[in-house]
Amino acid sequence: MIRHILAEGLALLRRRMLASLALIVAVAMPVALGGVTLSIDLWLKPILRGTVSGGTVEVLLRPGKDEGAIASWVTGQRTKHPAWRLRHIPKAEIQQRLSTWFPYLKPLLRDRPGNLLPDIVEITSPHPHSVTQLAGDPLVLAVGPETSFGPELRHVASRVSWLIGVATAVLLFSSALFAGIWVHLELFRHADEIAIMRLVGATEASIQGPFLFAIGVTGALAGILASLLDAAMLRWLSTLLQSIGLPPLEGPVTVIVLQLLIATLIPLGIAAWTLARHATLEIED
Question: Quick count: other Cβ atoms within 10 Å of Cβ 229?
Fold first, then answer.
């Protein structure tokens, strides 16, 4: 029976290749969007944990100081102000920001990056106005304006997550409906064959198996495609985030596994329900 299910399921996929490809794309798109949303939510938690209140200030240090002096200054400020979170921004990151914001500087930064780039320390504090006291420090050239982006980032992220969540739910419902219609049309096309199989005593497993196998393969392929789309979108978003000084997005393994399960189980569940309903109606008739 297993050989029959596999052979008939593969034959079904070959005959309905275009419809199967359309179903794969229809399932993969909302699953990929949902994965991106979940990855963004997981990415935001550690960032917003430190910026729920307060803000961030950029401190420009005087040129000509060696790395040892800068590291010693950063350590001293951490000791004096335990509430502050200090980060010495690497020159490679500054170069990436400037290259993104001002593309015409790329040749200049590429030729002489070490001579041009300043040393910047990013300070996050519950009371960012207190960072202005560093203006009189002999190592500090300038103290930048306060940027309290925590609440704004949370607000924007929640709005975007809500919109993507609604779009994902609508698209998932549409893909589930597509899977149900796909199975229903195939049942209609094979109605005579199924009726003959029931007359000669074929089990429901042998009748429904090829359809479930075909839908299961389609869902698994949709899950793989969703994972690839998710990785591509996260890579593109990470490039944008790194250009403004934020850490890159990462796709956790749990999100990938969840995408594979959802993409496989949703169309498989709809197909099983459609087949069971069809079998009940046939038996009643």
Answer: 19
Secondary element (H or E) of residue 74: helix 67-80
Q: For the range 266-269, what are the long-range contacts, defined as Cβ-Cβ under 8 Å and sequence gap of 24 or more?
A: 266/27, 266/172, 266/175, 266/176, 266/179, 266/219, 267/23, 267/27, 267/175, 267/176, 267/179, 267/215, 267/218, 267/219, 267/222, 268/212, 268/215, 268/216, 268/219
Quick one: fold of 55-148? Alpha-Beta Plaits (3.30.70)
Lookup: tokens for 170: 């609508």
Extents of the domains making up the chain:
2-49+151-284, 55-148
Per the CB < 8 A criterion, the answer to whether 34 and 259 are in contact is: yes
For residues 278, 283, 284, 285, the Cα torsion angle rounded to the nearest 10 degrees is: 90
DSSP 148-202: --HHHHHHHHHHHHHHHHHHHHHHHHHHHHHHHHHHHHHHHHTHHHHHHHHHTT-
For 205-252, the pLDDT digits (tens) are 788 888 889 999 999 999 999 999 999 988 888 887 776 666 777 778
Q: Percent of the chain, pLDDT > 70?
A: 85
Amino acid at 253: V
Residue 254 and residue 39: Cα distance in Å, rounded?
10
Give the pLDDT mean for 57-63: 86
Cα gap 38→82, rounded to integer Å: 32
d(CA 77, CA 75): 5
* CA–CA gap between residue 284 and residue 177 (Å, rounded): 25
Q: pLDDT per residue over 164-220, tens digit each?
A: 788 888 888 888 888 888 888 888 887 778 878 777 777 877 888 888 899 999 999
pTM confidence score: 0.64
